Structure formats: structure tokens, C-alpha cells
# Entry
Amino acid sequence: MTRPSHSLLGVLAATTTVVTIVLCWAGWRLLDQQRAIDEQHAREQLESNADATAAEARGKLAEAADRLSGWLSNPSPLAPAVEGAVIVTVSPDEVLVTPRDGLPFVPVAREASASPDTFSSIESMEFADHQLASAAKRYRVLSRNRDARVRAGALLRLGRVLRQSNDFAGALAAYQQLSALGTVRTDDLPAELAGLDGQRSTLLGLGDREGERRVADQLLHGLDSGRWLVTRGTAEFYRDEVTATSQPESWRLADAVTDTWRDSDGHLSARGQRVFAGDGQPVLVLWRSGEGRSALLATFAQRFFTATASGAASWQLTDPEGQLIAGDSAAPADSVARIIGNSEDPWTIRVWTASQPPNSTRSNRTILLTMMAAMLVFVWGAAYLMARAIRREAAVARLQSDFVAAVSHEFRSPLTTVRQMTEMLQMDRLPTEERRHTYYRILASEAARLQRLVETLLNFGRMEAGAERYRFVDLDAATLIREVVRDIEPQARDSGKQIEISNPDAEVLVHADESALAVALRNLIDNAIKYSPNQPTVWVQCRKENDRAAICVVDHGVGIPRSEQQAIFCKFVRGRAALDASVKGTGVGLSIVQQIVLAHGGEIRLESEPGRGSTFTLLLPSQA
# Structure
């Protein structure tokens, strides 16, 4: 059976391998097809994202341009507003900024100051005649004029005259009044800006560093926040006077608007757009102009187009020269491009997917891989179970073959002895009566041996078929032990062994089938005799352990390895020591013992070490 089983295992392994290869190939093909489908779907999604992104960008530009064109066609005191952008409107008589504090300076200032002729005679008295007191008196009169521009010019000059006269307190008061006039212009400056600058100079003259720093901070905050409508030169001059710190980002927007205005010399084309890259974020300037009016929009391109791309897509916006306007700095070669803007200044927007595939794609691949893994696990699991069943059947067949051989040998030996001795007796070849009696005794012993062997096989057959019927009675285990030992003693003496009963008079009552329990005990004692060839004594003990009766059979024989201590209770299994020592047996004795003990509601316990012997203990329910 060994060779056929190996052949079957080889065929099973080859079949499983072929099935695995086919499944892996099919799985690879499915994954490849799924990958192609996913790539096509991703490309279509990318094309859709690119169209949506381009449409969104065009929409933002168109909306901003419409706001600018709307103001040109219908001018209003308020400039139009666009989220994330600053708008400057320039008309012949005024300049407006939305939001009001969006720019620190504007390309041009339109508000008029008081006429210089108003102060020409007094300035002649101040500078040519050096009549500072008379000039101051006349400036004070004009500082109460009804025209705010005249008052502002008078206060500016009064502060100057008083400072020259070392009347710093009076000069400081004049400049404070000038600051209170706010955005009224004097000498092309807002009154508040001129007043703060005058206060700062006066405080420096007084040596009041703390006061001067406080006023300088007010001046710096006003400039950076776009509090006054001044040109770039004015803003830079006064800012450099009070600080050397870096300019806020709003100055880049103001620079872009001013450069656009300056490059056209104040005459902008009807429509246009321009990007200023510089060292920082690119600035987008969009304008509309006509009928002496202009509207300019300035914004950081990155912020203006931030919400353009949707989903997990990345994007990049560049001008015709490839200069980055907004988005990521580098675009991959497989990105999708769309053109936005006008024909004079077309921009290119590129869209590509992020590195991670969509959740649905990963989910599809995961499901497919999981299904393939489950199929492979099923195939190999089934192959393993089939291989295990084949090996188990082969092992059972081998054990059955060994059992048949062992039984045949067990029958052959006594039958041969009986046949030879019977022939000797039949032919009357025995010279003495003593010799004849010896032959009779041997014949009786061999017949008993045959009877026990047949009974063992019959008992095993009934137990395997579940046909064994037990008759339970209350009996004394010690008495049963003595009877079994008395039956086995002649056989033991012939083998040079003796059986000792420990505590033979103890009374231990059990509820058991007497004949079945005797069979179990006889098998254990017979094994102890056979497997202790160099030890003359076998011990049998009987005692109570808690509420159970314990019957122990002890020998100091070859012992049983721990690896075999469970297997030897299986049918047809014999230990390695029995095979090495060529000890006779069928391999069913311990299986019979275990079935009998389990039928009595007990258990069998084995304690053994190779070379030190074994102790088999039958634990049975005890009767009170």
C-alpha cells in the first residue's frame, strides 16, 4: 500500500500544482484586464476633471472681467468687489480701491490740494523776510478757514514755522490738528500722513524717542494697511523713514498694478491681463479700460485659482512662455492640457491625478485578489485534506497488514507446537510417562493460549462493531485482581517472572463488568511481563484515589517514549520498543483496555520513561 499511496500523493501534488498555475495565470489576466479598465476609467475621469477645471478657471476670469466691465459701463462711487482680489478704479476725478485697505499705494492720486497761491504771500514772509512770528499769526488765521484743504495747508505750514521757532509744543499741537483732518490732501499728501510725519519730526526735536516710536508705528501701520491713497514713491519714502523691515505681501499687488499703469503711461488698452512672477507668488493683473476710466484687478494667482481643480486631481496653470501662474510647480508627461484665456494671451492648464488610485479602484483590486487568494486557499486546503486522508488510509492499511501478519504468527506458533506434540503422542514415541505428562501440560498451555487469542479477537470485533454488552455488578477490585493474577501466574513462572500484589487485603468496591475488567487487567499484566525481559517482578496495586478506585500495573521494563504514549492506545499500533525487541503481539490489547475503561465511565493513565518502566493506572468510579 506504500507505493500506491505515494503514487496517489504524487498525482495529487501534480494536479494541485497545475490548478494553482492555471488559477494564478487566470488571476493575472483578470488583474491585467482590471488594470486596463481602471486606467481607461481614470483617463476618462482625468479628461472630465480637466474640462471641469478649465471651465472653472474660465468662469473665474470671466466673472472678474464682467465685474470690471460692469463698472466701466455704469460707474458708481463704490468699486466692484471680487473675492480674493483687490480692484482699483481710476476715473478723471478720483481713484477708488476695493477693499479699502487692499493696497498700500495706487498708481495715480487724483484728489486736489489747496492752491499754492493761497499761501504764496505768507511763504514769502516766512522764507524771504524771516518774519516767523508774523507768518505764524497769519497761518493760524487760515487754519480756521472753512475750506478743509486750506486749513490743512495752513496747519502744515504753521507746524513748520513753530518748529523753526523752537516752539515744539505748539508745532506738535498743529500737527495733531492736521492729522485729525484725515484724507484731506495738502501738498499732494493726505493730511493725516503729513500730520503724523510732522509729529514724528517734532518729537525727535524734543528728544522724545518713545513718543516718536509710537507715532512711527502709527505711520507704518497706515502705510502698510492702505489707509491713504498715495503713489508708490510717496509710500516708499515715508516707509523707509520709519522702518527697514520687509514689506507685507500687499505691496506686491500694489507694485503689479502700478507697473501695469506705468508701462502703459496711464493709457491702458481696452482689455488685457498680465502675470508678474517675481521672487514670490505670481500676481495676476486683469484690466478693462474705456472712456477715460480704467478698472484693474490684482490678485495672487495661486489663491485666486485655488478651488479650481476638483477631487484628488493636481493642476498647473502656465502662460504662453511656460511661466508658472498657479498650481503645482511641475506637471507629469501624461497630464491633460486645456487652453484658457484669449487668443492674444492663451494660458495652458494641465491636470493630472494624484499618486493614489481612487478608492473604488483599490476596492476592486482588493476584492479580486481576495477572491483569488480564497480560491488558492480552498484548493490547497482540499489538497491537504485529501493527502492527509490518503496517508491516514495508507497508515491504517499498513497497520492492518501488520495486524494480520502478527495474528497469523500468533496462531502459527501454538498450532505448530500442538501439531508436533500430537503427532508424537499419536505415534507413541515418548519413552516415559513423565515425558507424556509434560507434553499434555504443554498442549493444555498452548490450547489456552489459542483460546485467549481467539477471545481477544472476538472481544475486539464486538467492541469495534458496538455489539459488546456489559453486565455491571458491585464487586471487590482486590478480589478480582487476585483471581486474575492466579490465572496468569503459571504463564509468568514459565517466563521467569513473578507477580506481586500490593495491599492484597484492601477492599475497594467498584460497579463493573467482572469479565470485561478481568480482560483489561489481564492484558495489562501480560504486556508488563512481555515488555520487562530483564526484570523478574511485575507489581499490581489497588487503592482509592478520592472517589475513584485505582488499579495500577507497574513494571521496570523498556518503557514507552512520550511521543508514543497516545498512539499506542489506537488499534493495530505497536510501540517501537516492541518491534525492536520482536515481542509478540497483535496491537489491539491496549485499544481493548481503553474501550473497556471508557465503557465503565473511567479513564486510563500512563506514566512511563524509556529504560525505567511503565505504570498503567485504571481509574474507575468507586462504590461507597
About this structure: The mean pLDDT is 83. The longest strand covers residues 537-545. The domain at 112-228 is CATH 1.25.40 (Serine Threonine Protein Phosphatase 5, Tetratricopeptide repeat). The two ends are 53 Å apart (CA to CA).
